[in-house]
Amino acid sequence: MQSLYVEGNSALHRLSPRAKIFSLFLLGFVLFLGDNLPLLAIVTLLTALIYRSIGLSLKESAVRLRPLLLTIVIVALFTLIVSPWHVALATLLRLTALMLFAAAVTATTTITQFMDEITALARPLERTGWVKADDIGLAVGLVLRFVPEIIARYHAISEAHAARGLKVRPATILTPLIILTLRDADNIAAAIDARGIRRHVS
Amino acid sequence: MSTRDLVLAALFAAIIVALGLLPPIYLGFIPVPITAQSLGVMMAGVVLGARRATIAVLIVLVLVAIGLPVLSGGRGGFAAFVAPTSGFLFGWVFAAFVTGFLSERLVHGNQSGLVQTVSFFLAAMIGGIVVLYAFGIAYLALAANIGLKQAFVGSMAFIPGDVIKAFVAALVGRAVMAGYPLLRIRA
């Protein structure tokens, strides 16, 4: 699985991940305060410039942004039906600006930087006993390790269906997929504990 | 949390991610593609129960946050959190919890298969549709600056597909419970 990070050395790349994430939250809050169309248009233009500055080609940008832009346009059109035009336009600008800046933050921050921030965020919660900050990294690693395996297993099960002349139906393919996958849990857990990866567990 | 519970949650998170990458499965009688990962969220609830299902969904959201394209259609990164439909994404956490919570309480080992399936269906309907749409619609109304009623009407189109998903989740939940029981059932 390819991360959405883009190699580069733009100003946004050099900014600390925490500052970027905080700015995103701030932008999300500020954008919903007012309804001033020219101002919203300027902010949207600025975020578009920021997104351009990270060094993605126009083609690649289009591929990345298309699914979300489509959702935003559909929502804006729907707003146009039920509200006056300037409300719909404000919605369109607001959501587009937010999407562009969020996509820019994701494209300029590595997985490691994000994991460090999430772990740092979870650290104070350890005292509540709900979460162990280091488990987050372990869980993320496990998922990345097993997604390809699950997909391979899915194809094996659908081939088994085909070999028996059966149609692939959700219940008949998902049940064996889930049972086969979760049955590994005991062995994986034993392997993790045998290596002492979760030291804090007695 | 035991290592086994953590691994079960991570494996289910991997299943939810894989469901977004796989080609859509078509239902025999109605040509509805089962693409959406919300089916995975419902299944997490009925198979794992409240606590582990909630953790599984949280792991998926962490993967989205760190910039991996793990949502269906290759979506991911912070942009997925600020879309007008993101309420449905955040709502997954509560959908998984409520589906799991109800499954643990409604389903008993000594019920007949039919009663168990119906109970799982109810749990998936309430958690995966009522709770999920409550979050999704409230967020959509706020983000798109439209009334709750309009947001509600706009979201109605997706309900039939989700009812079918709840039905599939119920069948899978019952079958997994018969084949490899994981749900902690209250006596």
Per-chain topology:
The complex is a heterodimer of chains A (about 200) and B (about 190).
Chain A: H1 11-14, H2 17-31, H3 37-53, H4 58-82, H5 85-107, H6 111-122, H7 133-163, H8 170-182, H9 185-194
Chain B: H1 3-21, E1 25-26, E2 33-34, H2 38-48, H3 50-65, H4 86-106, H5 113-143, H6 148-155, H7 159-179
Antiparallel strand pairs in B: 1-2
Helix pairs in contact in B: 1-2, 1-3, 2-3, 2-4, 2-5, 2-7, 3-4, 4-5, 5-6, 5-7
| Poorly predicted ranges of chain A | none
Helix content of chain B: 55-70%
Percent helix of chain A = over 70%
Shape label of chain A:
extended
Number of strands of chain A: 0
Quick summary of this structure?
Chain A is mainly alpha-helical and 202 residues long. Chain A has helices spanning 11-14, 17-31, 37-53, 58-82, 85-107, 111-122, 133-163, 170-182, 185-194.
Note down, in words, how this protein is organized.
The complex is a heterodimer of chains A (202) and B (187). With 202 residues, chain A is mostly helical. Chain A folds into two domains: 11-109, no CATH class; 128-194, no CATH class. Chain A is built from nine helices and no strands. Chain A is extended. The mean pLDDT of chain A is 91. Chain B has 187 residues and is mainly α. Chain B has a single domain (3-179), classed as Orthogonal Bundle (Arp2/3 complex 21 kDa subunit ARPC3). Helices cover 68% and strands 2% of the residues of chain B. Chain B contains seven helices and two strands, in the order H-E-E-H-H-H-H-H-H. Chain B has helices at 3-21, 38-48, 50-65, 86-106, 113-143, 148-155, 159-179; strands at residues 25-26, 33-34. In chain B, a hairpin with a 6-residue loop joins strand 1 (25-26) and strand 2. Chain B is globular and about 50 Å long. Chain B starts with a helix and ends in an 8-residue tail after the last helix. The relative contact order of chain B is 0.15. The mean pLDDT of chain B is 89.
